[in-house]
Specification:
Layout (H helix, E strand, L loop, with lengths): L4 E6 L10 E7 L6 E5 L10 H7 L4 E5 L18 H15 L5 E5 L1 H12 L7 E4 L4 H10 L1 H6 L2 H5 L4 H10 L4 H4 L9 H12 L3 H9 L28 E6 L20 E6 L6 H4 L1 H13 L5
Parallel strand pairs: 3-4, 3-5, 5-6, 6-7, 7-8
Antiparallel strand pairs: 1-2, 2-4
Helix pairs in contact: 2-3
């Protein structure tokens, strides 16, 4: 089994500003094709460890802690977490390692960033694998027009509130564990895994929450909310990279209805539905997720 190591990548910054950095979990030979793994909220790079071991004998696997998470660069200003800034971190990371990546594998917030990267800079990747992360155009439509999605995503507005960090950290993160446990009890959440989450969250929650504060995508809080009139340009929505979407259909925050119409935005698309999996399919079905990534890697790559 290949060993996972920690490597810090220092990125470029405008003159006079602190250079950002990403601490990454790395596995596999440096000369092998690159697989980039992007985590979501409220997680960190360690959630990919089983997949890093699985692919590390054939690929150079890199799983960054995204900006704001764990020991990576974590600016205080929510504006620093706009999609363009987070995406540029990853552009520089791929360019430092090897471009293009054989595949970008992304979940949740990592998927939100990956959708945009694939649309704007398809030359960075040969394939895209999305795990329970809605396409931004379809998510915008549902947040704006679907009362059920608005209710399912109401937690986003809680996470946008100023000062909510103190509430989330209280009593051993009592308000954080339900993000996992409300989706079927989370039997995969072992004591050892809980401790890994505690260590990440104890480093601070503001960076992770700033993704929600910076994003225009959230349930509208009034008829005048900017999300009600927001439009996304074509260059941010149309993906020509061969894409596999793996979806846990028991996800109550992001239901499978968000897949409807996806083929309008993705030229080469394969959708894999997992009826027994929730939003946390990486933990629940890691072997099945690995098989679907293997299958995606066996498909012809973009050129």
């Amino acid at each position: 089994m290949s060993e996972i190591t920690i490597k810090r990548y220092t990125l470029l910054a405008p003159p006079g500003q602190t250079a950002p950095w990403l601490d990454c979990r790395v596995c596999g030979p440096e000369g092998a094709p690159l697989l980039l793994f992007l985590h979501g909220f409220p997680e960190a790079a360690f959630v990919w460890d089983e997949l890093l071991h699985h692919f590390g004998d054939r690929y150079h696997c890199v799983a960054p802690n995204l900006r704001g998470y764990a020991s990576s660069f974590s600016p205080q200003d929510p504006a620093a977490y706009r999609a363009q800034s987070v995406a540029m971190d990853l552009v520089q990371l791929v360019q430092q390692i090897r471009a293009p990546a054989a595949a970008v594998v992304a979940h949740d917030w990592g998927g939100a960033i990956a959708w945009g990267l694939a649309a704007m800079l398809p030359q960075l990747m040969q394939r895209l694998v999305i795990l329970n992360s809605p396409h931004p155009a379809l998510f915008l439509q549902a947040l704006r027009d679907d009362p059920q999605q608005q209710q399912a995503s109401a937690y986003m507005n809680l996470l946008r509130q100023a000062g909510v960090e103190d509430r989330l950290q209280a009593d051993d993160f009592a308000m954080m564990w339900p993000f996992f446990e409300q989706f079927g009890g989370a039997p995969w959440l072992t004591p050892a895994l809980r401790q890994q989450y505690r260590e990440v969250w104890s480093a601070g929650l503001s960076g992770a929450l700033n993704y929600y504060r910076a994003s225009p995508l959230h349930p509208p809080e009034s008829p005048q909310d900017p999300v009600c009139t927001l439009t996304l340009p074509d260059n941010l929505t149309h993906v020509r990279v061969p894409t596999t979407v793996v979806w846990g259909e028991a996800d109550t925050a992001l239901p499978p209805s968000l897949l409807d119409g996806l083929d309008q935005y993705v030229s080469t698309l394969k959708v894999v539905r997992l009826p027994g999996a929730t939003h946390w399919l990486v933990h629940e079905m890691p072997e099945r997720v690995a098989r679907e990534i293997d299958a995606a890697l066996a498909e012809p790559a973009s050129t």
